[in-house]
Design goal:
By secondary structure, this protein is an all-alpha fold. The protein contains twelve helices and two strands, in the order αααααββααααααα. The protein has one domain (16-120, 153-285). It has helices at 2-5, 9-40, 47-64, 69-90, 100-122, 148-170, 172-182, 184-189, 194-216, 226-241, 246-266, 274-285; strands at 138-140, 145-147.
């Protein structure tokens, strides 16, 4: 069968693994974007910069302070989440009653500032971040060799996405978040501190992006453009899944990652545009996205 397709089993399953890894990053990043858009109604163009910041926090913690990978999984989201909270309190909060384009332009400008500052400080060539010793090596499954770290990335990403979905869709806190997007005045009447809820939500979305950056650091070189290279694809994923849809962000992120990986097997020339082709088709047939709600 595989010979008829012109590919070895190892090659096919290897590309499926690559698709799962990319899809895992798409899912985490689009999840953070969906959460921020769903509650704040802001298209957060700084999300890619926050992903890059997470990777650089992990690299600087290892290089200058000797802090390893496992602590960085906690440190980087905390640092970037606090930066996100400061950003929401000082800048974004002033724009909620303005046209959406102002929030988009502000976050886009902030992304350019972060990228430019990192370029100036560290250059563009990229920095190496080593895989933790516990996750080095690979397992021979017979039909393919599975690198342990890449398996960990997929498992950790999917677990994080499912936990986040459960919190938002099945808990009291999630009910408050969803109510805050629909009727914040009514929620405030019940004694809920809506501004604090919004601030913490933005910080959580930024922390998700930073955590994705730490997971990506040992796979890709840590460099200032790693976020901007990924952000446009992630926005396409969010649009296909439906803006503000948590389930749509997760399912579409993983699904389109797999589609991209398989396209590299059968038609490599189209692998860089297949997600955007899917976006165009979905928008033509279902403008609100696959999981988006009617407005």
């Amino acid at each position: 069968m595989f010979e008829w397709l012109g590919i070895t089993p190892q090659g096919l399953f290897g590309q499926i693994l690559v698709g799962l890894i990319n899809g895992s990053f798409y899912a985490i990043l689009s999840l953070g974007l969906a959460i921020i858009f769903g509650l704040l109604n802001i298209v957060n163009f700084a999300h890619g910069a926050q992903y890059t910041m997470g990777a650089f926090v992990a690299w600087m913690a290892a290089t200058y302070a000797g802090i390893g990978y496992w602590w960085s999984l906690l440190l980087a989201p905390l640092v970037v989440g606090l930066i996100g909270i400061a950003l929401e309190l000082t800048m974004l909060r002033r724009l909620y009653r303005s046209d959406h384009v102002y929030g988009l332009l502000l976050t886009f400008g902030l992304a350019l500032i972060v990228e430019g500052g990192l370029r100036q400080s560290f250059g563009i060539s990229g920095e190496r971040y080593d895989i933790p010793e516990q996750l080095t090596g690979a397992v021979n499954l017979g039909f393919m060799v599975l690198p342990i770290y890449r398996a960990w990335v997929v498992l950790a990403s999917m677990s994080l996405c499912l936990v986040t979905w459960f919190i938002i869709e099945r808990t009291k806190l999630g009910a408050y978040l969803r109510a805050g997007t629909e009727n914040p005045s009514l929620l405030r009447a019940f004694g809920v501190n809506v501004p604090l809820l919004v601030t913490l939500t933005y910080g959580f979305g930024a922390a998700l992006a930073a955590l994705a950056g730490v997971l990506a650091a040992p796979i890709f070189q840590v460099n200032p453009v790693m976020g901007s290279n990924l952000l446009i694809v992630v926005f396409a994923v969010v649009v296909v899944g439906g803006l503000g849809s948590i389930a749509g962000a997760i399912v579409t992120g993983v699904g389109l990652g797999l589609v991209e990986g398989l396209t590299k097997v059968f038609y490599p020339e189209a692998s860089s545009v297949v997600i955007f082709v899917a976006m165009v088709i979905v928008l033509m047939l279902r403008p609100r996205g696959l999981f988006g709600k009617d407005v």
